[in-house]
Amino acid sequence: MAFIWIKPLLLCLLLLLVFFDLSQATSLSTIPRKRNYEENYYYVIEVIDDSFVTPHDVEKLLDVQHEGQVGALENWHVFSIRKNLVARSDSEDSHDRVLARYEQLKSLRRSDSSNQKRSMLQIDAIRSVEKQYLRKRHKRAPPPIPTPKIDYNPSTVAASLGIADPGFQYQWHLINPVEHNDINVTGITGKGVYAAIVDDGLDANSDDLAANFFAEGSYDFNDHVKVPLPRLSDDTHGTRCAGEIAAAKNDVCGVGVAPDAKIAGIRILSGQISDVDEAEALNYAFQKNQIYSCSWGPPDDGQSTEAPKGVILQAMIKGIKEGRGGKGSIFVFASGNGGAVDDNCNFDGYTNSIYTITVGAVDRTHSHPYYAEKCSALLISTYSSGSGSYIFTTDVGKRNCTSMHGGTSAAAPIATGVFSLVLQIRPDLTWRDLQYLTMISAVPFNLNEKEWIRNYAGRLYSHKWGYGKLDAYRIVQNAKTFKNLGTQVYLEMPVIDVDEIIPFSDHGIISRINVTQKDIDNVSLAHLEHVTVTINIEHTRRGDIEVDLISPYGTVSHLGATRRYDEFKGGLNNWTFMSVIHWDESPIGEWVIQVRDRQNPENSGTFKNWMLKLWGGKIADASSIIAAPSPSPSINESPIPIDESTQTSVLPTVPTQSSIAFESKSNTWIFAVFGMGMAFIFAGIAYFAKKRCWDNRGRKGGFFSRDTYESLQSGEVTNGGDVSLPLNKQFITSRELFDAFGDSSDDDESTQVVFENAYMDEYMNDDEKKVDNGSYTEGMIEHRDGGSTSGSNNEDHQ
């Protein structure tokens, strides 16, 4: 009988050897590596898919040392050269030995007229070479707030309400007893959802955070250790953001928006990092971490224009296509704190991306904070500091709290907490589903503001607020019946050459392109979501440029706004603007770009060219494709990531032989020995499991006994749960606030859709006539005939 295990054991060993051999290319390469930038120069090299070229070939070709794969990016690798082996002048890009060698080989290849040109050479397999530089990302920490108009000191407010202990209770963004402006919390608690705070660390020892700390999804890319604890004196930002999301239900600093969610810390902001470090951070544990909360970006100085590119952009696309099992990582970014210096989030490529949810700030009085940036990429707003008030949350220390958190840094984590609630009840939502759900569940407010416009699909939008403020109860309710969007497709129109000097006038230069029904049919575009415009403008002062996009039915996106501190003399070189304003509008008709220069007559520029790209959902039935004048609803279709270059759907691929060749096999026997050991352990477990299952079957406590089965069916180990009724707007005591995040009520709640783009709610009824219908403002070109004003489109994905 002892030999009965031999055949299964040999089979296990064979499978383990194959598994470790195939997985070596992915599992080992995802371990972050510490790099020594003082001694080495580093280069990220991208090779084409299914290439026959190995890292060893690249080493010989460019005389570099292979350092490993870039995180989860199979076709991207890191190479290095020692600084002491090159001349000092070689450190400059213009004399860099590796870059010069690469360009030389490429140049020779282009000029080669021999028959070799018909066959592939090793240099043809190298798509790009990026030299790595250390640079620092900037926290969107709370800026100073002017003298309070109203005293919001917790003790003062508590005393006026007859409350003895305000510390725990006074989280006004959750329960606001004064203005009644809050996120409208719900009984859902975020159980089973994992959010990563990409920041300056997370105090895993805090009593507020320890219970929810997710070590497996955490890493310190600054000091290259596993636990990303705060180590510098100003490493408080990430801990405060984490507390907003998932502070536990206790008596320390109140509760997070999703107090049962798990939180990981990914530390990148406590020093300089390179692009490859940032790329690995944005993909770290991306099958476990579901949401990446990012309260940082380029400087909010009103003069920077910076976007993720190369390996960072590829990491974001990788997360969108393959994160969360193919449903896509959720990237949440703070819109920026440069409002006081005329900064605009369309000049930040992270917030200006279709792959991110850009979150702006609104203060407790529903005023627009002076620091909050405006732009056409802003999707939603939620609460933060302003009008003399801040956010109360967890701080670094065992039981420390702070009442001074704010800025758009505080808004993005609150949104992350709300999205955690949504993913608890709908883990099947894709990254685009969540964006669409956010848009239709938003609550417009302050409708006397002139910023509000109504797009042709009938939706209200403001460059200050996005589609409105987040409402936790409404978005959770809408999520219950939301139907998944179809596959993403896009329509890329031809480049329009303009090449005209921009006159100093209100009219500027007008350029048009017509989108036809045939164009839409060719890519099976079902409905419009994001719109991007890539533009080239030469100018002696970039801060003077204004760029507006006008849809076929008159809705205006302010893509590029003037910035008084932007003195850059290079204009906009291949810069891509993005707008979410035209969601669900019909794309058919004439799209207009208007470029103006009316600030300083001594500066001038030339509008070179531009390209329009329309992104949206794919339709399976050609008869349901968009037809002018109004967009058709999307269908319920399983989302599959698409290939950017071919516009075709793709599924996750198994490593090919050529991709496996990219990885070193030096540790194969180590894994083989380890695999044999594991196989013996599994055999032993299986033997005793057999004894337990068959000899003691049916007994209490046995494997798969009746008790075990009943516990699985009870729902105790699931992520779901009923939703309790929304909290009312009366003042709620600390006990009631605690209970709001406790166990869900046993009473079933209605699953009807309660909110579709809040202009249909009572918030909107009194002021609806004050809202502009999106026509041109003064100084713009005349409104064209060809489309009547549309009513609300109520056939969304509910």
Architecture overview:
- The protein is an alpha+beta fold.
- It folds into 4 domains: about 80 residues, no CATH class; about 90 residues; about 300 residues, Peptidase S8/S53 domain (Rossmann fold, 3-Layer(aba) Sandwich); about 140 residues, Sandwich (Jelly Rolls), CATH 2.60.120.
- About 25% of the residues lie in helices and about 20% in strands.
- The strands form 7 sheets. The chain has a 7-stranded parallel β-sheet, with helices on both faces. Strands 18, 19, 21, 24 and 26 form a 5-stranded antiparallel β-sheet that branches.
- β14 and β15 form a beta hairpin.
- α9 packs parallel to α11 and α10 packs across α11.
- It starts with 5 loop residues before the first helix and ends in a 33-residue tail after the last helix.
- The C terminus is likely disordered.
